[in-house]
Amino acid sequence: MSEVQYTAEGVGRYYDVMAQFYQTVWGDSIHMGFWPDPTDATVSMSQAQKNFTDLMISHMGLQPGQRALDVGCGTGRPAIQLARATNTHVTAISISQSQIATATGYARESGVAPRAQAQGTGAGSANATDDAPTARFELVDAMAMPYRDGTFDAAWAFESIFHMPSRLQVFREMARVVRPGGRVVVADFVTLRPLTSEESAIAYPAFAANDLASLEDYVRDLKQVGLTNISCRDVTANTFRPSNRATYRELQTEAALGQLRKAYGHEQADAFRNGWSAIEKVNETLGYVLIQADKP
Question: From which residue to which does any coiled coil extend (predicted)?
């Protein structure tokens, strides 16, 4: 367990403060990318992130017109991509005010904002028909969602569970709001072995993590909330490691460093660059998995 426990508000503040950092080094999305060939340095972080979202979408099993939930939506790009790719209605939640504002803006620009959120942005921003895909963004704590039982056909948590004060409680809530016959998909960091105190001191603050756990812990909790047909795919070599390499390369560029210095000051910008290089120390300790489960 981490020595520093992050409340929901604390995680929200983390992303409010770190928004410019992630925008600078990762672009519009705040999640790692997927490289089919991990050695292919010609694939940009932005393209790799889209690749990963496509992979997540392929596991959701959605049909046009159905409803999906995105738990921990970041800047909203994955939810928008999900809605448009599957022609579905996506509700996406975050505890960061700035993320909800950013995501809602992107939804308006993309033409998938529901009418209520598209008002005032011009006629072209609202959906033309009720059958058009939508992505709605709401300030909601994943530990206590306001949605009725069985509201959604599928739900995903895309690189967000490690932030949660209780992984089991979030899985319980996801299982509750997904209908029988629906699906839950999770992409997240896992520990490959117990972390040393030095590794914990690097990993937990770097990712604002509450609990970095093993794959076995994830599977146990998913089973405990009643999910079945659990399948797991280790994508560490395609995600965590090439994403770290791409981030480190970007932080060495004068363009990125200049933007970070402007936003945070010279001392903090240099700390970001040096801090990410320290993540190399946990590169062989942390893995990344994609998990699919069904609600009977």
Answer: none
pTM (whole model) above 0.70: yes
Q: By residue range, what is the domain housing residue 146?
A: 8-294
**pLDDT tens digit string along 242-260?**
999 999 899 999 999 999 9
- For residue 32, what is the domain's CATH number? 3.40.50.150
Whether pLDDT at 123 is above 70? no
The domain total for the chain is 1
* Complete edge-to-edge strand list for the sheet that includes strand 134-139: 134-139, 89-94, 67-71, 152-158, 178-191, 286-294, 228-234
Q: Are β-strands 286-294 and 178-191 bridged in parallel, bridged antiparallel, or unpaired?
A: antiparallel
Q: Which residues pair with 281 in a beta bridge?
A: none
Instruction: Copy the structure tokens of residue 294.
Output: 């069904």
The answer to whether residue 2 sits within a structural domain is: no
- Cβ-based neighbours of 255, under 8 Å, separated by 6 or more: none
**pLDDT tens profile 55-77:** 999 999 999 999 999 999 999 99
pLDDT at residue 120, as a whole number:
43
Burial of 166 (C-beta count, 10 Å sphere; 0-12/13-18/19+): middle
Q: Decide if 12 contacts 96 (C-beta within 8 A).
A: yes
